[in-house]
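User: Show me sequence and structure for the first protein, then do the same for the second.

Assistant: Starting with the first protein.
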Amino acid sequence: MKKLIILSTIFLTVISCAVREKPEFLGVKNIEISEHNSEYITINAEALFKNPNDIGGKLITNGLKVYVNDNDIATINAATFDVPAHKEFSIPLTSKIPTDSLLTSRNITSLIGSLLSKTIKVQYKGDIKYKVFGFSKSYDIDKTENIKIKL
């Protein structure tokens, strides 16, 4: 009888903490150039999510591409982030782009256009993966924004 009570308690605990649905991807916001110097440009953004589940999990941003003026410039091979239960949360998307890669012959035309218009087109494209208890889900990310640059 004692084993039955223990087994029932464990079973009810597992059922009540189940993953009912995947966290909801709300979008990418706050894309901005946070730092720039002669060696690199740092672009920051936030990916927003809402987790309705009783348990958290992990988000993996490995392989997310950053395009500047439609040119593949950088890849975010970053970190694994903990997902909080029953919360809206954001994860940082930071990329350091070497200025040498912006000054190649294929990018020079778009760079001149950006200097004249004082805007730069930044696009995040790829997948963010959610993992918990062997359950896995990918979110397709494709967000483009024109950022004003100060000269």
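Switching to the second protein now.
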Amino acid sequence: MNANVAIQVLPHVSTDEEVIKIVDEVINYIKSTGFTYYVGPCETAIEGDYEELMEVVKNCHYIAIKAGCPKVASYVKISFAPEGGVLTIDKKVTKHHK
């Protein structure tokens, strides 16, 4: 693993219910990728290979559009170490959830 990404998808829709529906679709897609992930209240973190994660980020936008969102924005945070050594999700958050 040489990267982790945190993505917050922001659908441009009218209601909170629509936001939840679209974000749930994006999270379901992330779950289906097989990458280790962590869903937080404001973003989802994913870890894996940098190039593959960039495809996931791109596809999150397509999933939101397909789910009925006419326009979408995202905040994306990337931690990348080409030779590996990026801190894992587990090392970052597990101690705070026991």
